[in-house]
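Example 9 (inverse folding). The structure is encoded as follows.
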C-alpha cells in the first residue's frame, strides 16, 4: 500500500473553511515599511498585554542577546533603520542573522526590542508618525479576527522578517539552540470524544509532555507534519528538529473527533480542539483541527494542523462522504 503526501493533504478537505489569516497578512504585506512597523506597534500594544510575563523570561534570548546589545549601542536613527531593514527584507548582516533565528528567538528578540522601545532605550515609532488609511484598514481586519488568529498574524509577520539568502526548503534545519519553555504542570489525562486510536492519543500526550522522541516514534519513517499555512515537514529527523524548535510548551487540548476506516485498512481522523502557546498561556486558546492519516498498522503517515476560521468550525465534523 502506498500513500502520497499530496493525497493526504486533501483528507477532509470538504470540512474546511477558508481562513481569514492569509488575506489579513496579504493586506499587511502591501503596507509601506514604516506603516508595517507602526501597525505592528499598535497591534502589539493591544495584544502584547496578554503575553504571559513568564514566557519571555523562559524563552531566554540566547542568540539574540548579542544582537540586542549591538542595537543598544546604536543611535536612534540607526535603530530605526535596522527595524526598517528587517521589515523590508533588506540584505544586511543583521537581517541575515535574524533570519537564522528560530521562531521563538525571533519572537523573544522583538519582545525585548518592544520593551526597550517602551523604556526609551530603542527608538520608538517616530513621534510625528501619522496613521495612514492603509494602517487603519489592516488594524480593522485584525480586530475582526479571534484572539488565536490575531496572535498568528503577529507571529507570521515577525517570522517572515529579515533576509534569507536561499529559501530553506528541505524540512527544518535552523541551527539555533532553542529557548526552552519549562513545564510547570504535568501533562493532563486526555479523553477525546469519538477517538480511541492509540497513536493519535499518544501523539497528543507526547506533545503535552514535550516528549518529541515519543511523538516521532508514532510516525512512519516517511511520515509528515503539516503546520498551519506551511508545507509538510517530511521524515522523523526533520519532524523532531521542527518540534524541538517550535512545539515546546504547547498545551494541546483536543476535544472531539471523527474516525473513518478506508478499504485498505488505513484510517483518517479529524479532531478539533484548542491549543495554547507558552507565549500567551491560558489567555489565548487557538481553535485548531488535526487531520490524521494512519497506515493500516496504525502509524501516523500524515498530520495537518489547521487554524480554524471560526469557533463554529470546532463542531464541523461531518463525514466526507
Ligand atoms: O516590527 O500538533 C514591535 C505544531 C515593534 C506542532 C514588534 C502545533 C514593531 C504539532 C511592536 C516591538 C507546532 C505545528 C515588531 C501543533 C515591530 C501540533 C514586536 C501547533 C515586530 C498543535 C512584536 C502550534 C511582537 C501552534 C513582540 C498553532 C510580537 C502554535 C509577538 C501557535 C508575538 C503559536 C507573539 C502562536 C506571538 C504564537 C509572541 C500563534 C506568538 C504567537
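The amino acid assigned to each position is listed next.
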Amino acid at each position: 500500500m502506498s500513500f502520497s503526501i499530496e493525497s493526504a493533504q486533501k483528507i477532509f478537505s470538504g470540512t474546511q473553511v477558508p481562513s481569514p489569516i492569509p488575506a489579513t497578512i496579504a493586506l499587511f504585506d502591501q503596507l509601506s515599511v514604516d506603516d508595517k512597523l507602526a501597525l505592528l506597534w499598535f497591534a502589539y500594544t493591544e495584544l502584547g498585554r496578554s503575553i504571559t510575563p513568564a514566557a519571555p523570561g523562559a524563552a531566554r534570548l540566547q542568540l539574540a542577546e548579542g544582537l540586542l546589545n549591538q542595537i543598544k549601542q546604536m543611535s536612534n536613527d540607526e535603530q530605526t533603520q535596522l527595524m526598517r531593514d528587517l521589515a523590508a527584507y533588506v540584505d544586511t548582516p543583521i537581517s541575515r542573522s535574524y533570519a537564522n533565528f528560530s521562531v521563538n528567538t525571533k519572537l523573544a528578540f522583538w519582545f525585548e526590542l518592544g520593551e526597550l522601545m517602551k523604556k526609551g532605550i530603542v527608538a520608538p515609532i517616530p513621534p510625528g508618525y501619522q496613521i495612514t488609511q492603509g494602517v487603519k484598514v489592516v488594524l480593522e481586519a485584525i480586530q475582526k479576527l479571534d484572539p488565536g488568529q490575531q496572535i498568528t498574524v503577529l507571529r507570521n509577520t515577525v517570522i517572515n522578517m529579515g533576509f534569507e539568502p536561499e529559501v530553506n526548503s528541505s524540512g527544518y534545519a535552523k541551527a539555533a539552540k532553542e529557548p526552552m519553555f519549562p513545564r510547570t504542570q504535568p501533562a493532563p489525562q486526555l479523553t477525546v470524544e469519538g477517538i480511541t486510536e492509540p497513536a493519535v492519543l499518544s501523539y497528543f500526550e507526547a506533545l503535552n509532555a514535550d516528549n518529541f522522541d515519543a511523538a516521532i516514534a508514532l510516525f512512519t519513517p516517511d511520515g509528515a507534519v503539516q503546520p498551519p499555512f506551511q508545507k509538510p515537514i517530511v521524515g522523523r529527523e526533520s519532524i523532531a528538529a521542527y518540534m524541538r524548535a517550535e512545539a515546546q510548551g504547547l498545551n494541546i487540548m483536543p476535544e472531539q473527533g471523527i474516525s473513518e476506516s478506508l478499504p485498505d485498512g488505513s484510517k483518517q481522523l479529524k479532531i478539533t480542539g484548542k491549543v495554547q502557546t507558552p507565549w500567551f498561556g491560558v489567555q489565548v486558546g487557538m481553535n485548531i483541527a488535526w487531520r490524521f492519516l494512519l497506515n493500516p498498522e496504525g502509524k501516523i503517515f500524515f498530520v495537518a494542523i489547521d487554524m480554524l476560521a471560526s469557533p463554529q468550525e470546532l463542531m464541523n465534523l461531518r463525514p466526507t462522504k
